[in-house]
Specification:
Helix content is about 85%, strand content about 0%. With about 190 residues, the chain is an all-alpha fold. It has a domain of about 110 residues. Helix 1 packs antiparallel against helix 2, helix 3 packs across helix 4 and helix 7 runs antiparallel to helix 8.
């Protein structure tokens, strides 16, 4: 029982801290969650984190909350999912409550406006870091189907301007086909 409480407390503390000091949404919090739960705590493997991130991104809702639910469930079951979700949503709730109370003062404050402009530049850098790290994980995996999905989704989204729902459905179809083929024809699963 004490072990569960310690895990729940660490989950809550970690997600609360990450959510409180992360600006820019889910794409910014994902690499920080990776660093915390993969590198520091060692609770999740690198490959599994990639899979959990893909699920969080493809699920409806905020990516940060989706990731917190999935990681929390993976680590501590339903209780872990609830605790990590609470830790993720409390900081924005508190911050937005304070901001809405003092909205008129914040709206016209030049220092706050300059601070927010500076944060935008930092968010771009963090998102670029996420893309590079996740992309490198897929490249290191050396699975042809994953590379096709990654490159195809990038080209379809940014160059051909295909609707994101079509991209997600096509990626799911390619992934399911590759998994079916791998399970049926290749016991190792290394070539596709």
């Amino acid at each position: 029982m004490k072990k569960n409480l310690k895990i729940y407390w660490t989950l809550f503390k970690s997600t609360f801290y990450l959510s409180a000091f992360t600006f820019g949404g889910g794409f910014v919090i994902i690499p920080l969650m990776r660093k915390k739960f993969v590198e520091e705590l060692g609770w999740i493997e690198e490959k599994e984190m990639l899979d959990l991130t893909a699920i969080a991104q493809s699920s409806p809702g905020a990516i940060a909350v989706n990731a917190a639910i999935i990681i929390g469930y993976r680590i501590g079951g339903i209780g872990g999912a609830l605790i990590s979700t609470l830790g993720t949503i409390l900081p924005p709730f508190i911050i937005l409550s304070v901001i809405s109370f003092f909205y008129a003062e914040f709206r016209d404050n030049a220092i706050i406006n300059a601070l927010l402009k500076g944060m935008q530049a930092g968010v771009v850098a963090v998102i670029a870091d996420v893309v590079i790290n996740l992309g490198m994980g897929i490249v290191k995996e050396r699975r042809i189907s994953s590379l096709i999905i990654m490159i195809g989704a990038f080209v379809a989204t940014f160059f051909l301007e295909v609707n994101i729902i079509i991209v997600i459905l096509a990626a799911a179809l390619i992934g399911l086909s590759a998994a079916y083929y791998r399970n049926k024809h290749n016991k190792d699963g290394d070539e596709i």
